[in-house]
Design goal:
The protein has 13 helices and 37 strands. With about 775 residues, the chain is an alpha+beta fold.
Length: about 775
C-alpha cells in the first residue's frame, strides 16, 4: 500500500514533471520568536538546484516581434504573469505576449504580440489611460478567476477638471477615487493589434533613463489636474481577447505600484515620491471589475512609512472568509539617515465596498526580526560593483521587494517577504522571512534567513510559494569578477528553518557591465504557473556582450523531488481516486499529466488494470546510460568557456561533501550532493531542453523508486571519478573531463557490475534482470 508521502510525491511529479513529496511541516511552538543567529548568513545549499524547465529572452536588446523592434528605457521595471497558455511581460513602457505549453501551444517563448506600448490595452477607452504611456505598469494573473490584470499609473497630471479629488492627507478614513471616464468600463474591448512597425536601429548609448536624482522619477512641468491609476481586467484567460478598462483619479503622485490579488479586491500600494515619506494603499472592487460593472477604488494615505506591499495570493487556497489583506513594510527611513531596523511592520486592510466609511487600515504592528541594514544604505546609490567599470549599480535596498506572497497550504496560512541587506562579507544578501497568519488574525514570524554564501551581491529578489509549501526566490547576482545576472535559490517544505537548501541555479550569466546608468531593474518578478501551481516563473535583467542596453531573461523553475521514501515500487498500481483526493485536483488534469509521464517512461497505463510505476529493466538502464553519456559530455563541452575557478571549486566542495556523507552513512545527503555536483556545470548551459532531459532521465533512474541503500564500492568509485573530472577542469582540459563522463562515469559497460549490485540490493533484481 502506498504511504501518503509516496502518494503526494507521484501526483505532484505527475502534474509538474517533478515531485514535492514532503508534506508541510508546522514549526514547533516557540519557533515564531526570533532567536540570536536566526538570520545568519548561510552557505550554499547542498541539494541540487531547481530545474530550469524553460528559459528564453524576453523584451530587451535586439528583441523583435510582430509589432516591430523593442525601444528601451531605464530602469526595466520588469514584470511578468503566466496563464494557462500565455506569458505576458511588461518592461517599462512596452509589453509582449508569448506562448506557453498548454492546450493551445506546444512551445515556450514564441512571441505572439508586441512589442507595443503598454497603453495599447486602453485603445479606444479615452482619457489619460489611452493617451499616456507610462513606466511602472505591472501585470498579474488572477488565479482565482483565471483573468489577467494590468495596472498602469499615470505620471503626468492632467488638466484641471471639476470632478478631480480634493487633496488627500494621512487619515484614519479611506478616500474614494473618482472615476476618470464616464460610464466606465463600457463594453469589453478586444485587444488592439497595431500593424507591424518598420525595423529601426537601436538607439546609440543605450536606453533612455528617467532623470531626476534623488527622486526615482521627477515628472516634467505639467498641469495642475489629477494623476490617475488605470486598470485593465481581461474577460477570459486569453490575453489576446477582450478587456474591461477603468481609470481612477488621484490627487497624489502614484509611483511604484505593486498590485496584489486578494479575494475581495485588487490592492495597489503606491508612493507619493522619494522626497517625502508618504505612501498610499488603495484597493479596487475586484468582484465588480470581473463582471464588467461600474467599480470603485478607495485609498488610505500613510505618513512616515517605507514602501508598502500588500499580500498577493498564490494558488487557489483561500484565506478565511472576510479575512483582511495583510500589508507589510521594512523599517528605517533613508531620508532621515536611518538605515537600520530590527522589525518588519504589518497592517491589516479591511475593505468595505458597500459602505466605504467602514473600511479600515489598522496598524502598524512591529514584528521583531534579526537586525538588518539596508544594502547600499537604500535606493539610488552607486553601490553594486561591476568588473571593468567604475559605474556601480543601485540596489533599492530600503524596501521590501515585490511580491509579498500569501499561500494557504492545507489550512496553514503563510506569507513570504524579501529585501536586500548589507552583509558582513562586504557584499549584499537576500533577507527572507516566512510569517504565519493565525486566527485573529495575528501575523507571527515563523523563520528567517539571510542568503549570502559569499562576498558577492545578491539583491532585488522576488519570492514565490508553490502548492506544496516550497519557497523559491529569484534575485540579481553580481560583483567583481561577475557581471550582473540572474539566479534562483529555494527550500523545500519541512527543511531546517532559515535555510535555502537548494544550491542556486543560474538563469542568466551576465556577459558585460551596465555603464550608461546606475539604475538597475527597480525590481524583478516571480509568477506561479496556474497550470500546475508548482512551476515558478521568474524574470530579471542581464547584459549581453557588445549590447548597448539590457536583455531580460524569463525562466521557469521546478523544485527537485524529495520523492518517495520506499513506498513506490516498480509494478505498483496507483489508486487514481485517492491520488486526486489527496492532492485536491480532478481526474482530468491528473489523467493528462499521467499521459505525459507515460511518454517520459515513469508510468505505464493499462486500459483495464490502471496505472502503475513502470518497471526498470536492465535494457532500459543501459539505454538511459548511453543517452546520459552523450548528453552530459556534450553539455560539458559546450559550456567550456563559462567554467570559472568558482565552478571548479564548487564541484570539488560537493565531492568532499559526498565523502563526508559516505563516512556518515547518510545516503540522502550523498544523493543530493551527487546531483548538485553535476548540476554545477549543467546549469551553465543555455540549452534548457537538453538539461531538462538529463534531469528526467536521472529521476527515472534514481527516483522511481528512490533507493536508500549504499553500494559502498560504487559510491567510492564515483567520488574518485569526480576527482578526476575536477582535476581535468582545474587544468583547463574540458575535453578530457567530457571524455571521462562519456567513457567512464556514464559508461554502462564500465558500471554494469555496480548497477546490478545496486538494484539487487534493493530487492528489485527481478525487474532489473528483465
Amino acid at each position: 500500500m502506498l504511504g501518503s508521502n509516496a502518494v503526494v510525491a507521484l501526483v505532484v511529479a505527475t502534474v509538474t514533471w517533478l515531485a514535492a513529496a514532503q508534506r508541510w511541516t508546522v514549526p514547533p511552538a516557540g519557533r515564531d520568536v526570533p532567536t540570536p543567529g536566526a538570520a545568519v548568513e548561510r552557505p550554499q545549499g547542498t541539494r541540487a538546484p531547481a530545474m530550469i524547465a524553460a528559459s528564453f529572452d524576453g523584451l530587451g536588446y535586439g528583441f523583435v516581434g510582430p509589432q516591430g523592434s523593442w525601444a528601451g528605457r531605464n530602469p526595466s521595471d520588469n514584470t511578468l504573469a503566466v496563464g494557462p497558455d500565455h506569458i505576458v511581460q511588461i518592461v517599462n513602457t512596452r509589453m509582449a505576449i508569448f506562448t506557453k505549453p498548454g492546450a493551445r501551444f506546444g512551445t515556450t517563448g514564441n512571441v505572439l504580440y508586441g512589442p507595443v506600448r503598454t497603453n495599447t490595452v486602453f485603445k479606444g477607452f479615452g482619457g489619460a489611460c489611452e493617451t499616456d504611456d507610462n513606466a511602472d505598469a505591472v501585470v498579474r494573473y488572477d488565479q482565482l478567476a483565471n483573468r489577467w490584470l494590468i495596472v498602469m499609473p499615470i505620471f503626468r497630471r492632467g488638466k484641471r477638471r471639476p470632478d478631480q479629488p480634493a487633496p488627500w492627507q494621512a487619515s484614519e478614513h479611506a478616500y474614494l477615487s473618482p472615476p476618470g471616464i464616464r460610464r466606465q468600463p463600457g463594453p469589453a474591448a478586444t485587444l488592439f493589434v497595431p500593424p507591424p512597425a518598420p525595423p529601426r536601429p537601436p538607439a546609440l548609448g543605450g536606453p533612455r533613463e528617467r532623470q531626476g536624482f534623488p527622486s526615482r522619477f521627477r515628472p516634467p512641468p505639467q498641469e495642475d489636474g489629477p494623476w490617475a491609476m488605470c486598470y485593465a481586467v481581461s474577460t477570459s484567460p486569453d490575453p489576446l481577447g477582450s478587456w474591461y478598462r477603468y481609470e481612477f483619479l488621484r490627487p497624489l503622485f502614484p509611483d511604484y505600484p505593486r498590485p496584489a490579488v486578494w479575494p475581495d479586491g485588487y490592492y495597489v500600494p503606491t508612493s507619493t515620491g522619494d522626497t517625502v515619506i508618504q505612501k498610499q494603499d488603495c484597493v479596487a472592487d475586484r468582484r465588480r471589475m470581473l463582471a464588467g460593472q461600474p467599480a470603485t477604488e478607495q485609498c488610505f494615505v500613510i505618513d512616515s512609512v517605507s514602501f508598502l506591499n500588500n499580500a498577493d495570493l498564490d494558488g487557489t487556497g483561500l484565506p478565511p472568509n472576510g479575512a483582511p489583506n495583510i500589508v507589510m513594510a521594512a523599517g528605517g527611513a533613508q531620508l532621515k539617515g536611518d538605515f537600520e531596523d530590527d522589525g518588519i511592520y504589518a497592517w491589516q486592510f479591511h475593505a468595505d465596498f458597500e459602505t466605504p466609511a467602514n473600511s479600515k487600515l489598522s496598524g502598524p504592528v512591529k514584528i521583531p526580526v534579526a537586525r538588518y541594514r539596508f544594502l547600499c544604505d537604500g535606493q539610488l546609490t552607486n553601490c553594486v560593483r561591476q568588473p571593468g567599470t567604475d559605474r556601480h549599480l543601485d540596489a533599492q535596498g530600503d524596501k521590501l521587494m515585490a511580491r509579498l506572497v500569501y499561500r494557504n497550504v492545507n489550512g496553514r496560512e503563510s506569507l513570504v517577504a524579501v529585501h536586500s541587506v548589507a552583509t558582513s562579507a562586504g557584499g549584499g544578501g537576500v533577507r527572507w522571512y516566512e510569517f504565519t497568519v493565525d486566527s485573529g488574525p495575528a501575523v507571527r514570524l515563523a523563520q528567517q534567513g539571510t542568503y549570502a554564501p559569499d562576498g558577492f551581491y545578491r539583491w532585488m529578489a522576488s519570492p514565490a510559494i508553490d502548492r506544496a509549501g516550497n519557497i523559491g526566490i529569484g534575485y540579481s547576482f553580481g560583483g567583481t569578477p561577475y557581471y550582473p545576472g540572474q539566479r534562483f535559490a529555494a527550500r523545500l517544505a519541512g527543511d531546517a528553518p532559515g535555510m535555502l537548501t537548494l544550491h542556486e541555479a543560474v538563469l542568466a550569466q551576465g556577459e558585460a557591465p551596465q555603464t550608461n546608468t546606475l539604475r538597475w531593474e527597480d525590481y524583478t518578478q516571480t509568477a506561479m504557473d496556474p497550470s500546475d501551481d508548482c512551476t515558478i516563473w521568474y524574470v530579471g535583467d542581464y547584459f549581453k556582450q557588445g549590447a548597448t542596453d539590457y536583455s531580460t531573461r524569463i525562466g521557469a523553475f521546478r523544485l527537485p523531488a524529495l520523492l518517495n521514501k520506499g513506498g513506490l515500487r516498480p509494478g505498483k498500481y496507483l489508486d487514481l481516486n485517492a491520488l486526486a483526493r489527496e492532492i485536491g485536483i480532478s481526474r482530468t488534469p491528473l489523467r493528462d499529466a499521467l499521459l505525459r509521464l507515460e511518454c517520459e517512461g515513469f508510468v505505464e497505463i493499462h486500459s483495464r488494470k490502471g496505472v502503475r510505476v513502470a518497471p526498470l529493466t536492465l535494457d532500459r538502464i543501459r539505454h538511459i546510460y548511453e543517452i546520459l553519456a552523450a548528453l552530459e559530455s556534450t553539455a560539458l563541452r559546450r559550456v567550456a568557456t563559462r567554467i570559472t575557478p568558482e565552478t571548479v571549486a564548487r564541484m570539488d566542495q560537493l565531492n568532499r561533501e559526498m565523502v563526508r556523507a559516505l563516512d556518515a552513512s547518510d545516503f540522502a545527503r550523498f544523493y543530493d550532493a551527487n546531483l548538485a555536483f553535476h548540476d554545477t556545470y549543467l546549469n551553465l548551459s543555455d540549452n534548457t531542453e537538453m538539461v531538462r532531459q538529463i534531469h528526467l532521465l536521472k529521476q527515472r533512474l534514481y527516483d522511481f523508486p528512490r533507493l536508500r541503500g549504499f553500494v559502498p564500492e560504487w559510491e567510492r568509485a564515483s567520488v574518485e571519478e569526480h576527482r578526476s573530472i575536477v582535476r581535468c577542469l582545474a587544468g583547463g582540459d574540458v575535453g578530457g573531463a567530457a571524455d571521462l563522463l562519456r567513457d567512464v562515469h556514464w559508461s554502462f559497460s564500465y558500471q554494469e557490475h555496480f548497477v546490478r549490485s545496486y538494484y539487487h540490493a534493493q530487492s528489485v533484481a527481478a525487474a532489473v534482470s528483465g
